[in-house]
Amino acid sequence: MENAYVLNMTLQAQTPLANYVQQFGQTSLKEHSGVSIYSIALALPSVDALASIQSALGSAWPEVGHSTSNANGTHRLLGLQSDQVFALVTSEQSDHLSGASTPLPTLHSDAYVTDQSDSWAGLIIEGPSARTALERICPTDLHPNVFTTDQVTRTSMEHLAVIVYRAGEDKYLLLSPSSSAQSFLHAVETSLQNIQP
Question: Which spans in the chain are helix H?
Fold first, then answer.
């Protein structure tokens, strides 16, 4: 065939933020990858359904704004609303570059599970300037007397939807839709840059 040619292309998978990591003084900002994210919604919350989920995941259903974890920390449930949680599943087998999520155990028939792993970009911000940087762009009160360790909230940062989970004294996990991952990163990164001496 005349004028025919073959493109020899290789696609390379990458995470939404391309394994971003950066240090700002004593505070670090890095992409949170290697975790599978599932939405678990209950059609008809019941004692049986909640007990089944707790048994399967090793973690109690959290109150809204709080989180729970199993004994070895591989499953964490974020209480987003009374009938829905996000399950964060960490495993050495997690490999989002291959498109494979770490599966959840089989749950009660009243639980509707949706794999959200590809829908969210995650950042871990950790260090003495973490809260100061977040307070510049987040309308939620993150003071430690109000937003304690293991609490979670939905909020916005620079007009972007964000889920904030306080993982430690100066450590926060931020989740935002992967479709706006670069804008999300830019907002947090710029805030950190603006508070540097």
Answer: 47-57, 130-135, 181-194
The number of C-alpha atoms within 13 Å of 178 and in the hemisphere containing its C-beta is 15
DSSP assignment letter at 41: E
Q: Which of 31, 24, 29 is nearest to 181 (CA)?
A: 31
Instruction: Enumerate the β-bridge partners of residue 175.
Output: 122, 163
Distance separating alpha carbons of residues 171 and 27, to the nearest angstrom:
9
7-16 tens-digit pLDDT: 778 877 788 9
**Residue 42 identity:** L
Residue 188's SS3 state is helix
Q: Is 168 helix (H, G, I), strand (E, B) or coil?
A: strand
Assign residue 192 a region (left: φ > 0; alpha: ψ between -120 and 50; beta: otherwise). alpha
Using one digit for the tens of pLDDT, what is the confidence trace for 134-165?
Answer: 999 999 999 999 999 999 999 999 999 999 99
